[in-house]
Specification:
Rossmann fold; 14 helices; globular; binds zinc ion
Length: 324
């Protein structure tokens, strides 16, 4: 029987050659979360946790509640309900089902943890549901969904005076994303992904984002939820809208890179080492936070007043909603 490297008790998980018992796995997990929280001044700050249907945001909410007394922040959760009413369309109905299952899991956890849950209904705040917007505009649903969620999270956090939006970005996803950017030679995007905090700006109506799971691997969140018996719907792959209207490409760089990163990380803690290497070298390169703000050239959207970098001066959400 494998035994924990720290206490010799029965081990439940193997990470990078070492075995951990349940207790020491949670210690390992929290240590990696604290590696981010220790670098940010959080006392008396208001944090809004963005929840969705996945394991990442469920684990994030649970661990942030657990660490609350050590950092003295205030915590609320938010869920964007992307669709509600039923249609005669099968895919749309499956999506409604998917969203309501996700909300159930989030309500279950926030209820257990005594965290205030804010539910934003997209049909009320945007006048349309996600499936309607996707079918009207065409294009990849995941990209449209991501844009809408980022926009309404920021708007809600800004209007309600939150200091940070906490998102469930994990190390594995981040490293995969960076590697894809290297392949596509989109180097500017790499900078945003080596930071714990994306700085906001109240004049621009932009709320700061914090990524507490910056050093957490995807697999760690699966184990976290499993050991704590936290329910979640599934990965993004299960979303019924995922492949609707999307062009299928024969070359799936994401899958190739994902396999590479996951295989190497399993044994060698590769994702962490790669990220540490990037942070060290890009910082030494004279990189600082101010550069990002300038490079983004944000201005106010002519319609809604929220920040946009688009040349037309109209943000993507306004273009999606008003078919501009
Ligand atoms: Zn142990
Ligand atoms: Zn706008």
């Amino acid at each position: 029987m494998p035994r924990c490297r720290h206490c010799r008790k029965k081990a439940v998980i193997k990470k990078h050659w070492f075995w951990y018992c349940e207790e020491h796995f949670f210690a390992y997990y929290k240590k990696r979360i604290k590696r981010v929280l220790n670098k940010v001044r959080l006392n008396w700050k208001k944090i809004l946790v963005a929840t969705s249907w996945g394991k990442d945001s469920q684990a994030l909410l649970d661990v942030l509640v657990d660490l609350k007394s050590q950092y003295w922040y205030e915590l609320e959760a938010v869920f964007i309900k992307l669709a509600e009413t039923r249609w005669d369309n099968q895919v749309k109905n499956q999506f409604v089902e998917f969203v309501s299952k996700a909300l159930e899991a989030v309500e279950n956890l926030t209820g257990k943890l005594w965290v205030k849950l804010n539910i934003l209904n997209l049909q009320n705040i945007a006048g349309k549901s996600l499936p309607d917007i996707v079918f009207e505009n065409g294009g990849k649903a995941c990209s449209i969904c991501g844009t809408l969620k980022r926009y309404f999270l920021n708007k809600f956090a800004f209007e309600n005076w939150f200091d940070y939006i906490a998102t469930g970005h994990n190390l594995t996803d981040n490293v995969i994303f960076i590697k894809q950017n290297i392949i596509a030679t989109k180097y500017e995007d790499i900078y945003k992904n080596i930071l714990y905090v994306l700085p906001g700006d109240r004049d621009l109506k932009l709320v700061s984002k914090i990524r507490p799971q910056f050093w957490i691997e995807e697999e760690d969140n699966v184990w976290y939820c499993k050991l704590k018996d936290i329910k979640y719907v599934s990965s993004d792959n299960a979303c019924p809208l995922k492949d609707v209207l999307a062009r299928k490409s024969q070359w799936n760089t994401h899958l190739i890179v994902q396999e590479f990163v996951e295989k190497l990380s399993e044994k060698f803690d590769y994702a962490r080492k790669f990220m540490e290497f990037l942070r060290k070298n890009l910082k030494e390169d004279g990189y600082d936070l101010a550069k990002i703000k300038k490079s983004e050239l944000m201005k106010e959207c002519k319609i809604c007043g929220y920040p946009t970098a688009s040349h037309s001066g109209i943000c993507r959400v306004c273009r999606l909603l008003f078919n501009n």
